[in-house]
Design brief:
The complex is a heterodimer.
Chain A lengths: L5 E2 L5 E2 L1 H28 L5 H5 L3 E4 L8 E6 L2 E7 L2 H8 L28 E5 L10 E2 L5 E5 L4 E4 L4 E3 L11 E3 L4 E4 L1
Antiparallel strand pairs in A: 1-2, 3-12, 4-5, 5-6, 7-8, 8-9, 9-10, 11-12
Chain B lengths: L12 H9 L2 H9 L2 E3 L8 H20 L9 H10 L4 H28 L8 H23 L4 H15 L5 H9 L6 H32 L15 E3 H26 L29 H9 L3 H16 L1 H4 L11 H22 L5 E7 L2 E4 H26 L9 H6 L12
Antiparallel strand pairs in B: 1-2, 3-4
The chains are: A alpha+beta, B mainly alpha.
């Protein structure tokens, strides 16, 4: 250091190490500040508190007749509540799921009643095609379940994807039986 | 702006004073006297037409924003109110909506012109890439704007397009909900789409300024692709090309006026006159006509993520085109083989547009009997393969093996007909 000492106009020794340190420290502080500022600018686009709070819906299953489907708007998306016929239940249970793109048994797609049993009559799922979010049409398609008119995805009577471009089964929302006939979604 | 020595001489004290401080008058004067190749044909007037489109969209857009209400309960009605009750709203709203279609029509002509005459080749790569960026921002703006009337196609189009982001591995769902501001397309989505739709045209305007800057730095390409060598090869932009552009603009506005006054809804979709309903998907979702070819590419693949990647690739490939086309000859006029492939490419772009408008499982007329033969999924697959093959196989190989025709020495010689190659040259 000593042989390369540089003196500035005021007669002071220029310490390059000190200058580098100040330069890097200033840059680091500015970068950290920019990142801290960017955080709220980005985060504001996420779900607002009222959207998150738009919480839960209770559904009375006894009002859904056999072969009927209820469509309820929950968190901006439709929830299908289908009272399946014996034939539909048999079809849903009789599938060799190793052939399915997203293997799931019919039982895995149901939730237990207060007695801890499964009631295969009622299928509750988010009625949104997992391809691009269209709403599939009921009682249609090659598997008697749902058919999405947008890009031709076929779902079976358990809401499982069987054919077409959709990658996953229709989603099962978080729900619990709060009595034998009433469920609470969300 | 550079490219040619300035000939501007400030005459008055005030203009001399200003010229020393901000040479803005000089910039305008240099712009008007810019030496342009003397053989530019009418395909070269679409740059000017596009500038007009952008200005028209911004002016009518700002006016619409004064009357439009970006809320899911009022948006649909407010657009109807503009068309029925606001003074001259019947004129200004379709001017904006039809204008979007005319804008895309003009940009496609402009882009195919660039493809045909090799306007993307050295030294115009950056000019071309900025143009691709403008097109990309235009697509975003068009999509966001189509959401605003809050009809069924607005809503479900927005659902499908934002669903693309949901296909990103791992973070897809969070990303999609962050963009939407909720679990599904809702008021938060409409609000932010409105804000962004207002912003992006000004981004386009800034990119256009850079595009024109790049153009004036490297100079215009021309139909024979031969760089101007002497002053005899060029003409002053004004009055020669201002007048030529003006005439083309008048013809363009006649077509615009036909749609505006007689068919204001022909380029839209009837379902968008039904208010958005989150519980009912229209039986057949289609995007605006200018996105149909990309929609067909998306649907050609049975896998969600692969379809999206292919669709992105269809646009991304344009950005690297300057390095894919290995031929040193710019204009297709001197590339008889490439020219044939170009017309097939254009044909398949139309085919893709057709496929995008049809239901995938439907059979193609004249190419099927009953349910045997070609359906639209397979037609779009064939067209998609050609689309990509044109860029990544045909152009790279052809540049190496094709034997181009002899090119004229200069633009002037090509026009004056004192060479044997003049027959191929334009009589502009």
């Amino acid at each position: 250091m000593s042989e390369t000492q540089v003196i500035d106009a005021h007669g002071e020794v220029i310490d390059d190490d000190k200058r580098d340190f100040i330069f890097i420290a200033t840059g680091a502080a500015a970068a950290a500040g920019a990142a801290l500022l960017a955080w709220p600018l980005v985060a504001q686009m996420g779900k607002a508190a009222d959207t998150l709070a738009a919480g839960s819906v209770e559904i009375d299953l006894s009002k859904v007749a056999e072969g009927q489907q209820l469509k309820i708007l929950w968190r901006g998306a439709p929830v299908f509540v289908r009272h399946r016929t014996a034939k539909e239940i048999a079809e849903a249970e009789g599938v060799d799921i190793s052939d399915c793109p997203d293997p799931q048994t019919d039982d895995e797609r149901l939730r237990p009643t207060p007695e801890g049993k499964l009631d295969p009559r009622f299928l509750v799922m988010i009625g949104v095609c997992t391809h691009f979010g269209c709403i599939p049409v009921g009682e249609s398609g090659d598997f008697d379940g749902w058919y999405c008119p947008c890009h031709g995805s076929h779902y079976d009577t358990s809401g499982r994807i069987r054919k077409g471009p959709a990658p996953k089964n229709m989603a099962i929302p978080d729900y619990v039986y709060i009595s034998d006939t009433v469920i609470k979604v969300g | 702006m550079s490219g040619h020595p300035s000939t501007y001489e400030p005459k008055y004290g005030a203009t001399k004073w200003l010229d020393q401080r901000l040479p803005i008058v000089r910039m305008g004067a240099d712009f008007m006297t810019f030496p342009s190749p003397r053989n530019l044909n009418y395909w070269y007037t679409f740059g000017g037409i596009l500038a007009l489109c952008l200005v028209s969209q911004i002016i009518t857009g700002i006016i619409l924003a004064m009357h439009y209400v970006p809320h899911i309960d009022f948006a649909f009605d407010s657009v109807q109110r503009i068309r029925r009750d606001v003074p001259f709203g019947w004129l200004l709203q379709p001017m904006h909506a039809v204008g979007a279609s005319m804008f895309f029509f003009a940009v496609y002509v402009h882009m195919f012109r660039g493809l045909y005459y090799g306007s993307y080749k050295a030294p115009r790569e950056v000019l071309w890439i900025i143009g691709c960026l403008i097109y990309l921002v235009m697509m975003a703006t068009g999509f966001l704007g189509y959401t605003l009337p809050w009809g069924q196609m607005s809503f479900w189009g927005a659902t499908v397009i934002t669903g693309f982001f949901g296909a990103v591995p791992v973070v897809g769902e969070s990303l999609q909900q962050w963009l939407l501001g909720g679990y599904a397309v809702d008021n938060a989505t409409l609000n932010r789409f409105f804000a962004l739709h207002y912003l992006l045209p000004f981004v386009i305007a800034a990119l256009v300024a850079v595009h024109v800057w790049a153009l004036h730095h490297v100079g215009q390409n021309n139909p024979i692709g031969i760089t101007p060598k002497t002053q005899k090869d060029t003409l002053s932009f004004h009055p020669y090309y201002t007048v030529k552009d003006a005439f083309a603009v008048v013809v363009f506005l006649l077509i615009f006026a036909f749609f505006l006054f007689y068919q204001p809804d022909a380029l839209g979709h009837a379902d968008n006159y039904i208010q958005a309903d989150a519980l009912k998907t229209p039986p057949h979702i289609v995007p605006e006509w200018y996105f149909l070819p990309f929609y067909a590419i998306l649907r050609a693949v049975p896998d969600k993520l692969a379809g999206i990647l292919l669709m992105i690739g269809a646009i991304a490939v344009l950005f690297v085109l300057p390095w894919l086309d290995t031929s040193k000859v710019r204009s297709m006029r001197f590339r008889p083989v490439a020219r044939g492939f170009f017309w097939i490419f254009l044909f398949f772009c139309f085919i893709l547009g057709w496929c995008g408008a049809e239901t995938p499982d439907n059979m193609v007329p004249f190419m099927s009997v009953g349910d045997k033969g070609l359906n639209f999924t397979w037609l779009s697959r064939i067209a998609t393969i050609y689309y990509f093959a044109y860029f990544v196989v045909i152009l790279p190989i052809l540049g190496l093996v094709e034997n181009p025709k002899d090119r004229p020495e200069s633009i002037t010689k090509a026009i004056l007909g004192d060479t044997s190659h003049s027959a191929a040259a334009p009589a502009e």
